[in-house]
Amino acid sequence: QHSLCPDNPAQLLADSFLLNQCSHSMRYFHTIVSRPGLGEPRYMEVGYVDDTQFVRFDSDAETPRMEPRALWVEREGPEYWEEETRRAKGLEQTFRVGLRTLLGYYNQSEGDPPKAHVTHHPILKGDVTLRCWALDFYPAEISMTWQRDGEEQTQDMELVETRPSGDGTFQKWAAVVVPSGEEQRYTCHVVHEGLPEPLTLRWGKEEPPQSTVSIMAIIAVLVLLGAVAITGAVVAVVKMRRRNTGRKGQVWFSLSPF
User: Which of 57, 111, 150, 239 could form a disulfide linkage to 194, CB 3.0–4.6 angstroms apart?
Assistant: First the structure.
């Protein structure tokens, strides 16, 4: 039996009569992959006519755009590729939102808040460098700015790239040079999804990290209970270990009388 269906998809798409006489398929496959500690999720899209791949989009490409994977589709004009790239990037954002929602269902969307503090470094000519540190945070997205009397010092601020800590978390710092004696006019502002609200820090006035406060409170309670229940001193040993991912912690308490 002679088939009216051509092997060339370009001819098929161009001929409405053949489209009515033949059975073919056009399918798109979408994939998004989370990668904690390595940046944004990777989104990929491939298109097939029958069993032949003809287009591909990869968010990890140097210049993410929809690209041809078959000779016959390379003849399409620039408007086609611009429109296909816009469509793919729109779907990328949709899939990222869906991935965050899915992670939330499995309680995997919580972020680790940064442990932030300010250090003081005298330099020449009577100036000092104030360096604002953010440590042990996840995910990598974070905003750090310095303000002088409430005005941002973007032009005069040194900001390093976010760096991995090696345990699944990240670190970053922002520095500004200020006249000696004017340190209290400068504030560091840290915004991260793991924080219930943005942090504001000054040199010498930052709050102790939350984990330190919690450990001190636990030790105080244990010592108080030991003083009531046991004659003599009680030593509370608090051991904290984190998993390799840096996502969760486990706490053991050991009470030992002298």
Answer: 111
Helices (H) and strands (E) in the chain, counts: 4, 15
Spatial neighbors of 61 by CB under 8 A, at least 6 apart, are 67
Cα–Cα–Cα angle for 179, 180, 186, nearest 5°?
65
SS3 label, residue 229:
helix
* Half-sphere exposure of residue 39: CA atoms within 13 angstroms, side-chain side: 7
Q: Which two tokens stand for residue 145?
A: 């700015």
Please, what are the domains in the chain?
A: 9-105 (3.30.500.10), 115-207 (2.60.40.10), 212-257 (no CATH)
What tokens were used for 238?
């608090």
* Residue range 34-87, pLDDT digits in tens: 876 566 889 999 999 999 999 999 999 999 999 999 999 999 999 999 999 999
What's phi and psi for 209, nearest 5 deg?
Answer: -55, 150
Nearest-angstrom CA–CA distance, 177 and 240 = 37
246 to 166, 197, 212, 237: CA distances (angstroms): 9, 22, 16, 22
